[in-house]
Amino acid sequence: MAPSPTLRRRRLARQLLQLREDACLTAKQAAARAKEIAPDRSWFEAKITRIETRKILRVRDADLQVLLDVYGVTDTEQREVYRRLAREAANSGWWYGYRDILGAGTYVDLETEASFIRTYQVQHVPGLLQTEDYARAMIRAGGVTSEEEVDRRVEVRMMRQHLLNRADAPRLSAVVDETAFRKLPGAVAARQIQHLIDVQRPTLRVQVLPDEVGPHAGMDGSFVILDFASDPSAVYVERADGDGLLIEDAEQLTTYETVLDHVRTSALSVEQSLTWLKGQLDQLG
């Protein structure tokens, strides 16, 4: 699996911030020391802050080595770890050729290295669990009229699903509101429901949140929580403009985890959900 550049950028920025704080330096002081070491380069407080907040996506090797000098990182092997991390952060993800569809590709890129994906979906079946014909129907319903663009959007959605077949596939836990099933196009409903039944396994579980629950904690909308083996978790919230919101604040993450716990508790169990799905399939004949 190719490293996720987005995840590497998060990690590099976090580690450089930690190095500065461990050195008891403000961003302004770090910039001043960097200017002393490399007077021919442009160093200022805002540059340090932009690196630490990932506003600068690609940290040049020369700049990184100056920062490592400023922060007192002298061990050769340790410095090489940071340099390798910066090189990987500067790469393009597998999705780069679809950036006209995915934009910055932040979510898709992070998804590739998640160890656990937890989601609550209100209106749609999660993208990782969509059949090709369901995905095509949803993309067209979203107003895409060019068949060429529909094909490309379906293609990238199906490519995303390859991660579920890897030897190191992430665990996936999805709670899907009954609303989403009422919006299944008739021509594709049976295949989509059957797919949700067939795909389940110990590491991939789908629960249905039935209408009979009434008001519940997840009524503000869909979201995804991405967990990583060695990095902090993040929340992704879809938006109508297509550019989702990536939330990394620990307190907000806790809020979303609490909401998901409540939603999962309110939903049918995995076994009950399978029975419910089979009942829907029977009704379709």
- As a percent range, the share of strand residues is 5-15%
Helix content: 40-55%
Shape: elongated
Can you tell me the residue ranges where pLDDT is under 50 for at least 5 consecutive residues? Answer: none
Largest sheet: 6 strands, mixed
Strand order of the largest sheet: 3-2-1-4-5-6
Task: Let me know the average pLDDT.
Answer: 93
Based on DSSP secondary structure assignment, what is the total number of beta strands?
Answer: 6
Please give the CATH class of the largest domain. Alpha Beta
CATH topology of the largest domain: Endonuclease, Chain A
Indicate the CATH architecture of the largest domain: 2-Layer Sandwich
- SS-based structural class? alpha/beta
Secondary structure tally, helices? 13
Radius of gyration: 22 Å
Order of helices and strands: HHHHHHHEHHEHHEEEEHH
Number of domains as seen in the coordinates: 2
Distance N to C terminus:
41 Å
InterPro entries: DUF5753 (IPR043917)
Pfam families: DUF5753 (PF19054), HTH_31 (PF13560)
Protein name: Transcriptional regulator
Commentary on this structure:
With 285 residues, the chain is an alpha/beta fold. It has two domains: 5-89, 434 Repressor (Amino-terminal Domain); 101-284, Endonuclease, Chain A. The chain is built from 13 helices and six strands. It has helices spanning 5-22, 27-37, 45-52, 61-70, 76-89, 99-102, 106-111, 132-141, 147-160, 178-182, 186-198, 250-266, 270-284, and strands at 116-121, 171-177, 204-209, 223-227, 234-237, 245-247. Strand 5 and strand 6 (245-247) form a beta hairpin. The longest helix has 18 residues, at 5-22. 30% of the residues are buried.
